[in-house]
Amino acid sequence: MDSDPINTQLNTELETLRSEVAGLRAVQHIHRHTEQGLQDIELQLAGVIHSAMDAIITVDEMQHIVIFNAAAETMFGCSAHEVLGTSIDRFLPSRYRKNHYQHIEQFGHAKVTNRRMGALGAISGVRSNGEEFPIEASISHVEISGRKLFTVILRDITERIQAEEHIAQLGSLLEESLNEIFLFNVETLQFVQVNRGARDNLGYSMDELRVMTPTSLNPEFTEMSFRKLIQPLRTGLSAKIDFRTTHRRKNGTCYPIEVHIQLVTHNATQVFLAIILDLSERVEAETALQETQRTLMTLMGNLPGMVYRCKSDPDWTMEFMSSGCSELTGYVPEDFLQNQNVSYGQDVIVPEDRERIEKEVHVANGERRLFQLTYRIRTSDGTTKWVWEQGRGVFFNDGTLCALEGYIFDVTQEKVLEDRLRKTERLAELGTLASGMAHEIGTPMNVILGRAELLMRKTLDETTKKGLGTIVTQVERITKIMNQLLSFARKRPIERHPIDLASIITTTIDMVQERLASHHIQVETDMAFDQPQVFADHDQISQVLLNLVINACHAMPDGGILRIKLQHSTNQLHLTISDSGCGILAEDLSRLFDPFFTTKPVGEGTGLGLTVVHGIIQEHDGVIHVESERGKGTSFHIDLPIHQLGFPDV
Ligand code: ADP
Ligand code: MG
């Protein structure tokens, strides 16, 4: 059968069918493979979704949940089984729900198919226990067989936000700190972070500081010495190192600082943390305080007297004494303060005044008021001084006395003047009295004297004569006292002229020459005759000399030497009258010039001689003082102002 057309067509169709079947088989084969691939991918995807760290939720257009992975279960606290097919509403805070729907709808119509994490802004979710928490979400949508599916990937950022807030707080704390805070690298020592306070004060930017180390700011350290200083921090020998030094600003100025360095571990790396206090203000305040203290000390040092603080005990144990102490007491403050070998209460205040002082201070403290005292102290060289003191008690809060504080100063001079004034007043009174008396007594005395002398001449009886003689002597004595009294009570103004002291001395010695000789008293004079003149009352000066010479005679009953010396300085004549007599008791020295002070037996001394001398010298603007040693003799020193030529006669 050659070329049978039906057979040929059949064969052709058969071939076509065969090849179609083969094609189908191939397609079927490919299809089977693809299905298998899709199944694999689906499985893999399910695995990824299930094990994802983030919560993955897929919802349909109705907002019903179709996928809810394990992380979502943990995040929201419920199982997939519970929530599949239910609305997503339950996981959204009610106030956001409306927004959410709008959002999803808009997103569904938009061309973009996904938005990355965070693009949705700050949103929150609600756990099944009602707790709200911050989340970050990304969203995508796909359309499958006309069905829209939305998938959100959610991340719980509670912890991250907390940590971020914490760090932000810490950072701003450091940044805002008024202290200077530096972090620097453990190896290179270069600054890692420097807060604003430090940058502002130093004048460097952070970029500049990043290539600097602490030694670049510190003129006192070399890198070696600084490394050595902080070595104990590395070895753990010290937890913290504190020291004072200076920092140098960018503009070259320096400021004092206090540094505290420690080694801290931050995110598993070690870094040095330095906190620095700018001491400029403190140093300024300290300097100001020192300055104030210095001023105060100078002021106190310049005060004529002493400022003190002491314990309220019998020793007046001193806690503070100003430098005036030395001049006032003759002791240095250390004698009272450090060595405590002198007690103000027991050694300086004179025993006679202690009890009174104690009482006055006690009363004043009881009434919480100032005390003012006048008392005597004995200085280191044994002289007595009068002092005035004002002070007050310092009390603890509970009212107990803790110290005394006050000011003491020397009033000896004032006291002397005061005494002299009192004496002068007394003398003035005495003068008035004396002139009155002289007048009243003088006349009858003259009568008595006249009559007694008359009777003496008339009588022949020796006993009567002797008696009358006694009357005469005694009346003469009274008259003498009266005259002496009168001589210093005399109201007549002194008549001063320029006079030659040396010539008055010579005349006076002549007057008593006989008396001196009979007492075996030798006179030695030492005076140049060309001495300057004094401006004085001749009679009064000769009265002074006479009184002194006669006293000297009395002091040398068995003879001796009377020395008279006259010298001069620029403004004054110095007269000294010395004897080699009995001398004067120390305790009598202060009363020597007092009226009626005498050591002579009744009838012999009047105690007015030196009072008159003193009054006259004072009236001549002069000074008299006495020096005496018991058994050796006495010297009276008189200084009188020189008469100035051309000086108007007053
Ligand atoms: P009177 O001589 O009357 O006693 P004065 O005032 O002259 O009074 O002297 C007072 C006292 O001073 C004397 O009593 C005597 O104790 C003492 N006195 C004065 N001058 C001397 C002297 N040169 N030496 C020793 N004592 C003296
Ligand atoms: Mg006398």
Structure, described:
The protein has 650 residues and is of the alpha+beta class. It has six domains: 1-44; 52-156, Beta-Lactamase (2-Layer Sandwich); 162-278, PAS domain (Beta-Lactamase, 2-Layer Sandwich); 286-410, 2-Layer Sandwich (Beta-Lactamase), CATH 3.30.450; 416-489, Helix Hairpins (Orthogonal Bundle), CATH 1.10.287; 497-641, Histidine kinase-like ATPase, C-terminal domain (Heat Shock Protein 90). 46% of the residues lie in helices and 25% in strands. The chain is built from 21 helices and 23 strands. Strands 1, 2, 3, 4, 5 and 6 form a six-stranded antiparallel beta sheet that branches. It has a five-stranded antiparallel beta sheet with strand order 8-7-11-10-9. Strands 13-12-16-15-14 form a five-stranded antiparallel beta sheet, with helices on both faces. A hairpin with a 4-residue loop joins strand 1 and strand 2. The chain is rod-shaped and about 235 Å long. The termini are far apart. The site of magnesium ion (MG) has 4 residues, from helix 19. The site of magnesium ion has 4 residues, from helix 19.
CATH superfamily of the largest domain: Histidine kinase-like ATPase, C-terminal domain
> In total, how many domains does the architecture comprise?
6
Strand coverage percent: 25-35%
Distance between the termini: 194 Å
Task: Kindly provide the radius of gyration, computed on alpha-carbon positions and rounded to a whole number of angstroms.
Answer: 61 Å
- In DSSP terms, counting alpha (H) and pi (I) runs of 4 or more, how many helices? 21
| Largest sheet: number of strands, sense, barrel closure | 6 strands, antiparallel
In total, how many beta strands?
Answer: 23
Q: Under the CATH scheme, which class of the largest domain?
A: Alpha Beta
Associated small molecules: adenosine-5'-diphosphate, magnesium ion
Could you say which structural class the secondary elements and strand pairing correspond to? alpha+beta
